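Operator note (shift B, R.M.): manual run for Transporter requested after the automated queue skipped it. Running by hand, logging everything below so the morning shift can see what happened. Input copied straight from the record, untouched. If output looks odd, do not overwrite the archive copy; leave it for review.
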Amino acid sequence: MASVGLLYVGAVLFVNAMMLLGKVEAKSAAILNLFAGALQVVTPTVIIITAGGDPAAIMGASGIYLFGFTYLYVGIGLLAGLSSTGVGWFSLFVAIAALVYAAHNAFVVRDYPFAVIWVLWSFLWLLFFLVLGLGRAELTRYTGWVTLVEAWLTAVIPAFLLLTGRYTPSATLALILAGICVVAFGGLWMYARLPQEREPSHA
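Run finished. Output pasted below as returned.
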């Protein structure tokens, strides 16, 4: 069930990336945020209710709420025209909590790729905090590109690997993922700092 939800985390991150990059109108993106947010609240609730008090299952499900609340917060805020600062500061909370989940995956679960994925999510939500909470508008373009990359590398592809039974919690996969993202994010930082092409003026 959680792997299905992960697939749609990728979908909403993809649409939100397009919104940050100016390709999707904000209220249009809000609808998918509400759908995905609802899914990411219902899914962990069902897992926890049916876990029979298993601490490992409850711990694994608890982190899903971080995404559900984020997407519901974003969706409602966009539709209602609310300030983004609340979402921004909540994103700081998510960024810090994600590091705890990363450590748990690395040292307790021994799922090294997801330890890296949680670190990547922490970085992404930190960017959301800077852009939405602190108003660092100059980082919007870079955040959009990072969101686009993470939609596929931290959500869609892992979800399909899990759904098809091809996922392996190996350290090698974790190192490959970390290496790809370091190179990609470094390159995107340089690209995002390039002057944007201006649309031709119409007299």
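Quick read of the result: Residues 199-203 have pLDDT under 50 and may be disordered. The radius of gyration is 17 Å.
Leaving this for review. - R.M.
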